[in-house]
Specification:
The complex is a heterodimer of chains A (about 150) and B (about 120).
Chain A (H helix, E strand, L loop, with lengths): L2 H11 L5 H28 L4 H21 L2 H9 L1 H4 L2 H14 L5 H8 L4 H26 L1
Helix pairs in contact in A: 2-3, 3-6, 6-7
Chain B lengths: L1 H26 L4 H17 L3 H8 L1 H4 L2 H19 L2 H28 L7
Helix pairs in contact in B: 2-5, 5-6
The chains are: A mainly alpha (about 150), B mainly alpha (about 120).
Chain lengths: ~150, ~120
């Protein structure tokens, strides 16, 4: 078997990444998480909370649920099936905080947990805050021009 | 009936946002971390150009729960703070608006690390 034949053989045997199935799973599970979020939002607003406060509390609730599910090891199993379905909602962010925190416990609480907790949350906060600050400056200039 | 429709819109919008990310993961070399960063920045940009307000109005939780909603909260917070405090608001608004989510993630993540130990990965 020469190199080319081998490559063809590998290609034939390699599991095809089932993109349609992945997308369907991501759609359903991601959609369901958003429905849970929407139901919680309606619940909190019916309890008299403001829209933005209700949205924040929804995030907090979902973050809490994710931290617990990550801790008892269920979240990884859901994420394996859901792919982007659990990544894109705030659950992905929460998991990206809780998971390295738990995994790096053995490296100590300062440079282990304390540093690694931001492995993925760090970039998200950095670029979110940075783009927000840039937008703020642009927005400020716009208010000067038009008002 | 209203609540059913709201949930349907949230389901569809949230689902579509997840499918876009899934396609990006499967078809490009973007890692999950890059997707998260991309989504937050996209949320800020879409809010800045005035589009994301409509999506939130339409989809509710379907737009605020995904990470683009995090960017939306940052941009909205910045707008509000700039209107109140001027240029200083550009620095204070973003994190103020998202402090709840960030602090919750850090606190619950830390508590989880105290309670749980790493599972063996299969």
């Amino acid at each position: 078997m020469n190199k080319k034949e081998y490559c063809e053989y590998v290609e034939k045997r390699a599991k095809k990444s089932p993109i349609v199935k992945n997308c369907a799973c991501a759609f359903v599970i991601g959609g369901l998480i958003c429905v849970i979020g929407e139901l919680l939002r309606e619940l909190y607003m019916s309890a008299g909370m403001e829209k933005t406060d209700a949205s924040t509390l929804v995030s907090v609730t979902l973050v809490f649920i994710t931290a617990v599910l990550t801790g008892i090891g269920i979240f990884d199993n859901i994420a394996k099936v859901a792919g982007a379905g659990t990544l894109v909602p705030i659950t992905g962010f929460a998991n990206a905080v809780a998971s390295p925190a738990i995994d790096t416990k053995s490296e100590g609480y300062i440079l282990g947990v304390g540093a690694k907790i931001f492995t993925i949350a760090g970039p998200v906060i950095l670029y979110g805050t940075l783009s927000g600050a840039i937008y703020g400056v642009i927005y400020y200039i716009c208010t000067l021009i038009w008002w | 009936m209203d609540i059913f429709l709201n949930c349907l819109y949230a389901f569809i919008t949230g689902g579509i946002l997840c499918v876009i990310a899934q396609i990006l993961i499967d078809k490009t070399k973007l890692t999950p971390a890059r997707i998260l960063v991309l989504y937050v920045c996209a949320g800020v940009v879409l809010t800045a150009v005035g589009l994301y307000d409509y999506i939130v109005e339409f989809a509710g939780g379907g737009a605020t729960v995904p990470l683009t909603g995090f960017g939306y909260a940052i941009a909205k917070g910045v707008e509000k703070a700039v209107a109140e405090k001027g240029l200083l608001g550009a620095l204070t608004g973003g994190i103020t608006a998202t402090s709840g989510g960030i602090t919750a993630a850090i606190c619950f993540g830390y508590i989880a690390s105290l309670i749980f130990s790493a599972k063996r990965k299969d």
